[in-house]
Write a structure and sequence with these properties.
By secondary structure, the chain is mainly α. The protein is built from nine helices and no strands. The protein has one domain: Lysozyme (Orthogonal Bundle), CATH 1.10.530.
Protein backbone atom coordinates (compact mmCIF):
# COMPACT_ATOMS: atom_id res chain seq x y z
CA UNK A 1 0.00 0.00 0.00
CA UNK A 2 1.51 3.37 -0.97
CA UNK A 3 2.42 5.68 1.86
CA UNK A 4 0.48 8.49 0.19
CA UNK A 5 -2.49 6.88 -1.65
CA UNK A 6 -3.89 10.21 -2.82
CA UNK A 7 -0.46 11.21 -4.07
CA UNK A 8 -0.08 7.94 -5.96
CA UNK A 9 -3.48 8.46 -7.59
CA UNK A 10 -2.59 12.04 -8.47
CA UNK A 11 0.72 11.02 -10.01
CA UNK A 12 -1.03 8.30 -12.03
CA UNK A 13 -3.61 10.78 -13.27
CA UNK A 14 -0.89 13.28 -14.08
CA UNK A 15 0.94 10.73 -16.20
CA UNK A 16 -2.04 10.62 -18.57
CA UNK A 17 -2.32 14.38 -18.85
CA UNK A 18 -1.39 15.75 -22.28
CA UNK A 19 0.66 18.82 -23.04
CA UNK A 20 -2.38 20.31 -24.76
CA UNK A 21 -4.35 20.31 -21.52
CA UNK A 22 -1.60 22.13 -19.66
CA UNK A 23 -1.53 24.71 -22.44
CA UNK A 24 -5.24 25.51 -22.05
CA UNK A 25 -6.01 28.88 -20.53
CA UNK A 26 -6.63 28.60 -16.81
CA UNK A 27 -10.00 30.26 -17.24
CA UNK A 28 -11.16 27.29 -19.34
CA UNK A 29 -11.13 25.16 -16.20
CA UNK A 30 -13.51 27.55 -14.45
CA UNK A 31 -16.61 27.25 -16.55
CA UNK A 32 -19.95 26.29 -15.13
CA UNK A 33 -21.56 23.09 -16.30
CA UNK A 34 -24.14 23.36 -19.07
CA UNK A 35 -26.38 20.96 -17.13
CA UNK A 36 -29.49 22.57 -15.70
CA UNK A 37 -30.05 22.68 -11.96
CA UNK A 38 -31.75 19.66 -10.48
CA UNK A 39 -35.26 20.54 -9.36
CA UNK A 40 -37.56 18.67 -7.05
CA UNK A 41 -41.09 19.42 -5.97
CA UNK A 42 -39.90 20.41 -2.49
CA UNK A 43 -37.03 22.75 -3.40
CA UNK A 44 -34.48 23.80 -5.95
CA UNK A 45 -30.90 22.70 -5.54
CA UNK A 46 -28.46 25.59 -5.70
CA UNK A 47 -25.22 25.09 -7.57
CA UNK A 48 -22.50 23.79 -5.27
CA UNK A 49 -18.87 24.77 -5.09
CA UNK A 50 -16.86 24.50 -8.27
CA UNK A 51 -15.77 20.92 -8.94
CA UNK A 52 -12.48 20.67 -10.75
CA UNK A 53 -10.74 17.57 -11.99
CA UNK A 54 -7.16 17.15 -10.72
CA UNK A 55 -5.95 18.05 -14.22
CA UNK A 56 -7.97 21.28 -14.24
CA UNK A 57 -6.73 22.21 -10.76
CA UNK A 58 -3.14 21.51 -11.81
CA UNK A 59 -3.49 23.67 -14.93
CA UNK A 60 -4.80 26.58 -12.85
CA UNK A 61 -2.07 26.17 -10.22
CA UNK A 62 0.73 25.86 -12.78
CA UNK A 63 -0.46 28.99 -14.56
CA UNK A 64 -0.57 30.93 -11.26
CA UNK A 65 2.91 29.69 -10.30
CA UNK A 66 4.37 30.78 -13.62
CA UNK A 67 2.59 34.13 -13.42
CA UNK A 68 4.33 34.79 -10.08
CA UNK A 69 7.67 33.34 -11.21
CA UNK A 70 7.52 30.36 -8.85
CA UNK A 71 8.45 26.74 -9.39
CA UNK A 72 5.12 25.11 -10.37
CA UNK A 73 5.96 22.03 -8.27
CA UNK A 74 6.31 24.28 -5.21
CA UNK A 75 2.80 25.68 -5.68
CA UNK A 76 1.38 22.26 -6.58
CA UNK A 77 2.84 20.80 -3.39
CA UNK A 78 1.41 23.56 -1.19
CA UNK A 79 -2.02 23.16 -2.76
CA UNK A 80 -1.94 19.37 -2.56
CA UNK A 81 -0.95 19.47 1.11
CA UNK A 82 -3.52 22.14 1.92
CA UNK A 83 -6.55 20.93 -0.06
CA UNK A 84 -5.71 17.83 -2.08
CA UNK A 85 -6.27 20.04 -5.17
CA UNK A 86 -9.90 20.39 -4.10
CA UNK A 87 -11.44 23.83 -4.69
CA UNK A 88 -14.42 22.86 -2.51
CA UNK A 89 -12.16 22.29 0.54
CA UNK A 90 -12.99 24.33 3.64
CA UNK A 91 -10.97 24.18 6.85
CA UNK A 92 -12.41 24.39 10.33
CA UNK A 93 -10.67 27.76 10.66
CA UNK A 94 -12.38 29.13 7.53
CA UNK A 95 -9.62 28.69 4.94
CA UNK A 96 -11.02 28.28 1.43
CA UNK A 97 -10.21 26.53 -1.82
CA UNK A 98 -7.20 25.15 -3.64
CA UNK A 99 -4.66 27.16 -1.67
CA UNK A 100 -6.66 27.32 1.60
CA UNK A 101 -6.55 31.10 1.87
CA UNK A 102 -8.26 32.67 4.88
CA UNK A 103 -10.92 35.29 4.00
CA UNK A 104 -9.29 37.90 6.26
CA UNK A 105 -5.99 37.30 4.44
CA UNK A 106 -7.73 37.76 1.08
CA UNK A 107 -9.22 41.05 2.31
CA UNK A 108 -5.79 42.68 2.68
CA UNK A 109 -3.64 40.57 0.35
CA UNK A 110 -5.84 40.77 -2.75
CA UNK A 111 -5.69 44.57 -3.01
CA UNK A 112 -2.07 44.71 -1.85
CA UNK A 113 -0.57 41.91 -3.98
CA UNK A 114 -2.97 41.59 -6.93
CA UNK A 115 -4.26 45.18 -6.88
CA UNK A 116 -7.86 44.00 -6.74
CA UNK A 117 -10.37 42.22 -4.56
CA UNK A 118 -10.51 38.47 -5.01
CA UNK A 119 -13.26 35.89 -4.86
CA UNK A 120 -11.85 32.89 -2.99
CA UNK A 121 -14.62 30.70 -4.43
CA UNK A 122 -13.15 31.30 -7.88
CA UNK A 123 -10.31 28.77 -8.27
CA UNK A 124 -8.30 31.09 -10.52
CA UNK A 125 -8.45 33.91 -7.94
CA UNK A 126 -7.68 31.45 -5.15
CA UNK A 127 -4.61 30.06 -6.93
CA UNK A 128 -3.42 33.52 -7.95
CA UNK A 129 -3.64 34.87 -4.42
CA UNK A 130 -1.98 31.81 -2.88
CA UNK A 131 0.88 32.04 -5.39
CA UNK A 132 1.16 35.81 -4.83
CA UNK A 133 1.45 35.25 -1.06
CA UNK A 134 4.15 32.62 -1.56
CA UNK A 135 6.04 34.96 -3.93
CA UNK A 136 5.78 37.83 -1.44
CA UNK A 137 7.09 35.68 1.43
CA UNK A 138 9.89 34.26 -0.71
CA UNK A 139 10.93 37.76 -1.84
CA UNK A 140 11.04 38.98 1.74
CA UNK A 141 12.60 35.93 3.40
CA UNK A 142 14.86 34.60 0.59
CA UNK A 143 14.31 30.98 1.67
CA UNK A 144 11.54 28.70 0.36
CA UNK A 145 11.23 26.82 3.65
CA UNK A 146 10.82 30.08 5.56
CA UNK A 147 8.24 31.16 2.94
CA UNK A 148 6.31 27.93 3.62
CA UNK A 149 6.45 28.58 7.35
CA UNK A 150 5.16 32.13 6.78
CA UNK A 151 2.28 30.76 4.68
CA UNK A 152 1.36 28.49 7.60
CA UNK A 153 2.19 30.45 10.75
CA UNK A 154 2.36 34.03 9.51
CA UNK A 155 5.16 36.31 8.43
CA UNK A 156 5.53 38.04 11.79
CA UNK A 157 6.01 34.73 13.61
CA UNK A 158 8.70 33.64 11.17
CA UNK A 159 10.53 36.95 11.45
CA UNK A 160 10.47 36.85 15.26
CA UNK A 161 10.95 33.14 15.95
CA UNK A 162 11.84 31.30 12.73
CA UNK A 163 9.99 28.08 12.00
CA UNK A 164 7.91 27.04 15.01
CA UNK A 165 8.43 23.43 16.10
CA UNK A 166 4.71 22.90 15.43
CA UNK A 167 5.23 24.09 11.82
CA UNK A 168 8.18 21.81 11.07
CA UNK A 169 6.09 18.83 9.86
CA UNK A 170 4.11 21.15 7.58
CA UNK A 171 7.24 22.65 6.02
CA UNK A 172 9.09 19.34 5.70
CA UNK A 173 6.04 17.51 4.34
CA UNK A 174 5.45 20.07 1.61
CA UNK A 175 9.14 20.13 0.76
CA UNK A 176 9.13 16.32 0.31
CA UNK A 177 6.03 16.59 -1.90
CA UNK A 178 7.69 19.32 -3.97
CA UNK A 179 10.70 17.08 -4.50
CA UNK A 180 8.49 14.15 -5.56
CA UNK A 181 6.53 16.33 -7.95
CA UNK A 182 9.81 17.72 -9.31
CA UNK A 183 11.18 14.19 -9.89
CA UNK A 184 7.94 13.21 -11.66
CA UNK A 185 7.99 16.41 -13.78
CA UNK A 186 4.46 17.08 -12.58
CA UNK A 187 4.67 20.85 -12.96
CA UNK A 188 5.94 20.66 -16.53
Amino acid sequence: MPKFPRLAAALTAAATLTVALAAQPASAAYQRSANPLVQTAAHRTAPGPVRLSPAQARAILIRAARHHNLNPNFVLAVSYWESGWNQAARSRTGAVGLMQVEPYTAAWAGPRLLHRRVNLSNPVDNAELGAALLRSYLTQLHDPKLALAAYYQGLTGVRKHGIYPSSRSYVDGIWRLRNRFQAAHLGG
